[in-house]
Amino acid sequence: MFCPFCRHSDSRVIDSRTSDDGLSIRRRRQCPECGGRFSTTETASLSVIKRSGVIEPFSREKVVSGVRKACQGRPVTDADLAILAQKVEETIRATGASQIEANEIGLAILPSLRDLDEVAYLRFASVYQGFESLEDFEMAIADLRLQHARSLSDSADSAS
């Protein structure tokens, strides 16, 4: 870490704190050469391996833009999409992997999108999972109904 004041190639960490979201670390540093103090923010890099083999940095904005298409005309706000993208990133980072297949990002999007809006979920899943027939939609809807019935059953059990 170069000192921003004198360009000395070393610095000493004085204090480290985790950011509020837990995804980065803020470090307070001091240069042993000039005594200048400065802060750095460190994050673990997360790369996406696309189907073509190209590797690029993970982007929450790409998650939002991909899901936004499925949410057109639905009662989903930009804030909802930002929260969904954050959940997806947290899910992916929790795996501990520094590189992840693009396909796995889509899989991480599906549960959060299902909780957010079932119609948007069906739209996204139909493209992402390549639905080819009405039966594919019927199976997905049956699965949603089963999930909905389970959540109602769990709610009733916890209320008793």
Brief rundown of the structure:
The protein has 160 residues and is an alpha+beta fold.
Order of helices and strands: EEEEEHHEHHH
Strand residue percentage: 15-25%
Report the mean per-residue pLDDT as an integer.
90
Largest sheet: 3 strands, antiparallel
Query: Which regions are unreliable across 5 or more consecutive residues at pLDDT < 50?
Result: none
What's the β-strand tally? Answer: 6
Helix vs. strand class = alpha+beta
- Nearest-angstrom radius of gyration? 22 Å
What is the 3D shape? elongated
Q: Compute the separation of the termini in Å.
A: 58 Å
Spatial order of strands in the largest sheet: 1-2-3
Please work out how many helical segments DSSP would assign.
Answer: 5
Estimated helix fraction: 40-55%
| Total number of distinct structural domains | 2
Cofactor: Zn(2+)
Family: Belongs to the NrdR family.
Zinc finger (unnamed): 3-34
Protein name: Transcriptional repressor NrdR
